Amino acid sequence: MVVVAENIQAWQNHAVYGEYLIHKLAHSVYAPVMDGEAQIALGTRYFEHQAEMDRAKWYNGVGIYYRMQRNDIGRALESHHVALALADGVQRPSLVGRKALTSTSLILSKTGNHIEAQKYARQAQGYAEILGNIAGQAYALCIEAKCWMALSDFRYAADLCNRSRTLLESSGLQGGTLDIFVQQQEAEIHLLKTEYKEARHIHETTINSIPPGQPPTINTVLSHLNLALIYIATEASPELVNKHLDISRQHFNTTFAYPTGRLYCDMAHADLYLRTGQPVAARLLLEECYAAARGKLEEGATFCLERLADLSHGLNDQYTTAHWANVYLGSALKSKDSLAMMKAIKCFGEIFLSNGDNQTALNLFTVALGGFTFMDVHRWKGTCMIRIADILAARGEFLKSREFWTSGRVLLARCSQVTDTALVDAKLETLKLCQRMD
């Protein structure tokens, strides 16, 4: 790359020079640009004298650099807006404009503005369809699916992913990088619904798709990270978790210039601290990650808030936990994330239950149960059922409590929650013994 950089300076009057400058920034996640601001200044001066569409390409590249390598969301968004205005001024629609639209949609969704992000994703689909750009259309469909995931409409998100994959298959693009990306979004839907086995299968397939000896792609590294999170959630051994977490951290530190990936690794590490009984280390790392993600990575901020707001983790006293639960609920309401709303309500249920206000807790768990049932989120639906059963049992309503314990147990077992399932078994056995004694 150094030799190319030295030799290409003599080609400044050739179109390849501009393409080189764009490629360098747009692919900086694979080859970090150490002097980014200087390169941007150089490229901007060069493209001042080039055609408008070439300038639009340049600003798309700048936007990708700011988003991926620098995690500077504001500048990234501004760059893509400039690219779209330039491209649309020359030709509407255009491939350059379509790329600006999908990039803008991604950024808006990452910052929690999912409704606006949907508009850009749909506009990108329209551009791609008119241009006959099948891959672009499939990608834009997948980006819209990510918006619906964030809004907790998992059925429609899955439908969009299916439509995206159908387009790719119809044009012979199945099995490629884009197809793998779409499959990973399908895995994310499964993960959000706590369908851990299905999500794990997709990520394992992604990792195994890389031939031996071939370097990993950013998709496979993200699959390692997701496997670590899945193994944490399903109580696998810390050694297995660390195996995948170490692989992802190593590549985000060396192979890819992707700060967001490193932040995700830190969040997963905090989750592992929770699993292994290290609440102080978990709390400090979660608070640090939340500060880094807030306003830039809504998904990451939500991840941290979900854990900080959960009294059962023992990270803080009730007052501080209630503060985090308020922040969690406010964030969910702002971004219209229904899943996070129900999780926050569940967190409040835990707080009221610990204070002995069983009726308020019952009301909150009932509301959350309805939401989780509608979204078909198995683990948290099961957890709410268990909490409701506990409250009913304390009231002496043993017939109803047995029904809730039994139904909740099925859901927890489906999600590989071995410890919680065993606790429910013990409660059911105790109830059975008490009934025999009566």
From TrEMBL:
<protein>
    <submittedName>
        <fullName>CTLH domain-containing protein</fullName>
    </submittedName>
</protein>
<dbReference type="InterPro" id="IPR011990">
    <property type="entry name" value="TPR-like_helical_dom_sf"/>
</dbReference>
